[in-house]
Amino acid sequence: MVRYLDCAATTPVDPRVRDEVLFYLDQEFGNAGSRTHDFGRRARNAVESARDRVAAVVSASRGDVFFTSGATESNNLAILGLYEHGRAGGRMHVVTTRIEHHAVLEPVTELERRGFDVTWLDPTPGGWVEPEAVREALRSETLLVSIMQANNETGVLQPVDRIADAIGDHPAYFHVDAAQGFGKELRTLSQPRIDLISMSGHKIHAPKGVGALIARRRNGNRPPLRPLMLGGGQERGLRPGTLPVHLIAGLGKAAELALADCVMRDRCCRAFRKRLLEGLAPLEPVIHGDAERSLPNIVNFSIPGIDAESAMEAWSDLVAISDGAACTSASYTCSHVLSAMGVPEAEMAGALRFSWCHSSEMPDLPAMVSAIRR
Predict the structure, then answer these.
(1) Residue 173 contacts by C-beta under 8 Å, 6 or more apart in sequence?
(2) Beta bridge partner(s), residue 109
(3) Strands 3-4, 93-97: pairing kind
(4) Is CATH 1.10.1060.10 the classification given to domain 15-260?
(5) Single pTM value for the model
(6) What is the pLDDT of residues 77-106, one digit of tens each?
(7) Does 3.90.1150.10 match the CATH number of domain 3-11+262-373?
(8) Catalytic residues
């Protein structure tokens, strides 16, 4: 039986989340924007309850949460939404890293196209960016620092809490793409100096198509974002469009469960990782990224002498994995993340990403070893 180990791409929907979604899809189907009857009021209450549950994961407030279609939209809103403010104030410098997801790289590149200056930071060989490098990159005209919480290819955690300390009282806004780490690594995202946090529901067992941007107030002021779309006035005018109440309710339930079950999930994922690597040890995998600084549910490695396509073909009836980020795997290009880390080309060509969750089932490891040896 094929075991699914591509949870960094998307997670299975939790049955309790599914129940919440179906309740607001089938029974409480009202529009949260309808203010003249109880159907609308109950829908609006469900949205505000979800807002509370998402905010609780990062110690934010209800009013800080803006619902979106997912982290990609949230990243675009956080980055491109600051364009007019930066241009008007002459603050046209951005700091980011070369290992960001394309949902950050491309909006930042768009700012660069519009005349902004961008400092692209390189990671250490272990896959993280040093806070001191961020501090040294800051200028008086720096508008934004955007650095992910956890890398989607290697699982390596960035020291975003220490980076926040390094930015300190500089006026730059600090954005964190938390698509992979939201609800898994809780402590760092509670740092109040982090102004903007992007997340996706389908990484924490909610359905695809819903996420949030958390925009904290600093000194009483929220980041001066401008909407990317117009019309309707929903989400306090920042993200118009009829709210998908069923998806938002599901996201709220998933956030609640992630917070309540965090310790259990972490323990299960660490045990899974240990057993997986012990079972595949005869293949002498070369791990990319510092294992001591990584999420417990992602590992990226190469098997000496085996390219990624051959490995996945050998394992096609045993395990579903990725040869890198799922959203770019169709291009069959070497990883920009591993390249920035200085991983040799031969190892990049063989890089495989295994990612799991607390409910994942272990594949037949002896059969996987035998398939590669054949």
Answers:
(1) 82, 143, 144, 145, 195, 196, 223
(2) none
(3) unpaired
(4) no
(5) 0.95
(6) 999 999 999 999 999 999 999 999 999 999
(7) yes
(8) 327
